[in-house]
Amino acid sequence: MPRIPSPAVAAVGLVGGYAVARWTKKRPLGGVVLAGAGAVAVREWQQVGGVKVAAGLGAAYVAAFAGSHPLAKKIGAWPAVFSVAGTVAAASWAVTHQK
Is the model's pTM score more than 0.90? Predict the structure, then answer.
């Protein structure tokens, strides 16, 4: 079974988590999507780069989620979510594709 690249998993987790929370009006359900994708991404990061890479990118994933909230007040919800998802995906690609 082909593996989905970790940058895509991380971006889909952030965007998908927000989309599910917004469209279902159930924030915990969006959190499940966010956490599930984050867990898959962290596992992939650990396999590719080890514990330090997984911890660093995992922290970036959580920081992106948290940072999207104040950013949304300045630029809007969807632009904020896409911005942080792109940032995390780019960081993930930069770190994991050097290996």
Answer: yes
Cβ atoms of residues 55 and 39 within 8 Å: no
Half-sphere exposure of 93 toward its Cβ, with a 13 Å CA cutoff? 11
Which residues of the chain form beta strands (DSSP E)?
none
Residue entry with tokens 């904020």: 80
- Give the C-alpha separation, 7 to 26, whole Å: 26
- Confidence band (pLDDT; 50, 70, 90) for 97? confident
Q: Contact, 59 vs 72, CB < 8 A?
A: no
pLDDT score at 1: 58
Q: Is the dihedral of CA 86, 89, 94, 97 positive or negative?
A: negative
8 Å CB contact between 95 and 41:
no
How far apart, in whole angstroms, are the C-alpha atoms of residue 58 and residue 40?
10
